[in-house]
């Protein structure tokens, strides 16, 4: 128990001592520690976790990375490496899973408790067909013979909404789409009809629209009488699917409550911090540009006191976007950009006929799902790759004909921030040297002046001078991203291209980075091109948002218009896929039945972009 | 599938012929560049094999255009008629190769089998007992064995088994009992290398999520090891075994010379020493042919064992999978294309977009 958290009263409430006889799974005082190789000290990762799952219930275990949530759940089935030592009790069907002999534990694994992993691509054996992987454990557990096992596996695939299960069961995992793969893995976990399903971030690796399908599938399975324990860092997911929440931090349960109680009146400071940090999409009324959260009546009372509702809108630079734009010259004007990649056996059009302008001082967001071409577009604008056809103007000059020294000089004006900060920093240089590196490349100043500038920039992003001579690996993910931002600012660029700068970070850190970017933008008069898959992040930071799909623009509007009056069906679908944290579940709409999961309709993007309102462009039906 | 495979084979064979042509041009060019000729070597004297027939330049016209000679040789090589060697005008190049190759092959096949038989269990054991005495012990022994040259073992075995105990003949080539010492000596280094390869390959497979998933389904450690781990970790082994076999089949100079075995290795050294152009060209081309054929077989087998490879080839016009570099490089294992897709999610963080990249790229390939 860490001293800094929670009063003992809270913890007493959280830590029941006696086992709940009714519970399907009753965990008491679970502790996990890992021995360091060669007899080093042990590291305790889980320190006395207790919770219950009632039959038919669904529990969300939430927390940020390193909170011990995955280790806890894996410890229940003793799936941790040999270096782990687990103590405590986990009563399941009258047996203590922690002390059960191996053979009996194996009878529980797979047959009574199924497990779903984050990444189906790695959790399914790539060289075995679905048939093998869905049927083998039926035979291990002696549930059915070979012939019946196949029928049952086909049935399970059908249940999770995989089209043509009889054909697909003979396929290899890589032959399925991402969503199908995830569902096939769920089918693997439920084919033996377990009583409890443990799902470890089952939707984190998926696009939002597919995430919704998988969550709805899990909801359907609950209807079949399978209880659910789900690990997630996404409070929206927990809110959407689960009844109860266990909040973990540093290996300790800091709060255990029903979802409603957790959302509406969190008792622990850390819970409140998590809820505050979670970004939600706010439906904006374009007429008044006033925020209104997509939340329920239950939350409305709270927000009545603060009309802006969303905590991040109350003040700060974010507010600036709600003023009408001052017409300035376009910093970036791209016309009819096309990028075709030659791949063996054909070509892929990653970006198709994209027009884009970025005004001076404006933040333009590009949102879209994986494969929508948003990162390719960012790289085209930064001229990291050359467009196949199209024009690119920067500050009124043609940016595509630049070469040699002119191009090098131009590059000073456009800088990038990448998704993975550690990978984008030079690991063998100190952070000060990292930040000074662009200056060195462009031969700006003397070594002394470069260092002074680097320290100044680090100070600006909140890295103290005392740490300037440490190496990137000695910093946390959020700090590394700050350093990467400082480096991008070293040459005082006009345009900052940010490619998913926060998606590798925990939510609380994400908020800090967004605050930093907004502050810097306001202070330095930067223009930004901000790539993200996260609509809530886009809404918070962008003035204008472009929705992309299949390499082309679907809709383009100011943030207020896009969130207030989305017009294209795809945009609406994207917005509907974002799961609200507050409010009742009904807000998110009815679960999509498994029958509906089967159709993955092709998006029709053949039409023209039409201006339906000033500055609001929508692709018309073709 | 069969049609695709045949098309792939056809393309690979065309490439193989082109590569052989390149090898022949380079080899011949180098021979032309080197000062001195076979004729001038006559005063060096006799060599270990027979008398020097020396004297006249067998190529006939002194100073004839080199390329004429090249075309004459290559014309013959295509029909497996490379003509007499300079040194032994009475025997043909193809005749000598035809005699030597079966000898080398009869060492290479048992040596490769012995390698596999020992390396796979040892590597597996080391992987399963990672960081335990069995692992440290076997790694120590394997590293030591790999560092010692093979002919040292040949000498040791000769001393112990032949000279000391008198169980086996010392050297020569006159029956199955002559094979034992060279086969063991040849197998030592590849065994050490392969065992380490199996170990690292198994360790990598053991870390994969699908192993945990299989355990979570209720499989016993043994079942999961055999059904999922071993199978997947042995697939990349094919890419290493192929080149090992090829290098053994094309002769091993030290062992053959040391033990007096009339294999390809000895033939090649003889050709190189006497600058016997037809014999050098013939053996070099033959080596190249064997290596390329083995590579081709490896690629086809690899594709059959790992469905992802065949799939990627179909998309990429059946491009060769990246393979571990032969022998030395194989310790820093470059996994095949398929391996890298598996490595992706693990190295990525558990945040959406890190994984997203991986699934996106594979999705793009999949549709259909």
Automatic annotation (TrEMBL), chain A:
Region annotated Disordered, chain positions: 285-324
Entry-linked CDD domains: ABC_NikE_OppD_transporters
Keyword Cell membrane: yes
Name the record gives this protein: Glutathione import ATP-binding protein GsiA
Gene that this polypeptide is encoded by: gsiA_4
ABC transporter domain sequence ranges: 27-275, 332-575
Stored SMART domains: AAA
Keyword Oxidoreductase appears in the UniProt entry: no
Family: Belongs to the ABC transporter superfamily.
Chief location bin: membrane
PROSITE patterns: ABC_TRANSPORTER_1 (PS00211), ABC_TRANSPORTER_2 (PS50893)
NCBIfam families assigned: PRK10419.1, PRK11308.1
GO BP term (any one): peptide transport
Enzyme Commission number(s) of this protein: 3.6.3.-
Pfam families reported for this sequence: ABC_tran, oligo_HPY
PANTHER family for this protein: DIPEPTIDE TRANSPORT ATP-BINDING PROTEIN DPPD (PTHR43297:SF2), OLIGOPEPTIDE TRANSPORT ATP-BINDING PROTEIN APPD (PTHR43297)
SUPFAM superfamilies listed in its UniProt record: P-loop containing nucleoside triphosphate hydrolases
GO cellular component term, pick one: plasma membrane
Gene Ontology molecular function, alphabetical: ATP binding; ATP hydrolysis activity
Subcellular location(s) of the protein: Cell membrane
Keywords per UniProt: ATP-binding, Cell membrane, Hydrolase, Membrane, Nucleotide-binding, Transport
UniProtKB/TrEMBL annotation, chain B:
Pfam families associated with the record: BPD_transp_1
Compartments where located: Cell membrane
Membrane topology: Multi-pass membrane protein
Biased composition regions of type Polar residues, renumbered to the chain: 359-368
A GO biological-process term: transmembrane transport
Entry-linked InterPro entries: MetI-like, MetI-like_sf
Span list, region Disordered: 332-368
Chain ranges of the ABC transmembrane type-1 domain: 101-302
Keyword list, A-Z: Cell membrane, Membrane, Transmembrane, Transmembrane helix, Transport
Transmembrane stretches, start-end: 12-34, 107-128, 140-167, 179-198, 234-259, 279-305
Predominant subcellular localization, coarse grouping: membrane
CC terms in the record's Gene Ontology section: plasma membrane
Family listed: Belongs to the binding-protein-dependent transport system permease family.
Record's protein name: Dipeptide transport system permease protein DppB
Gene (UniProt): dppB_2
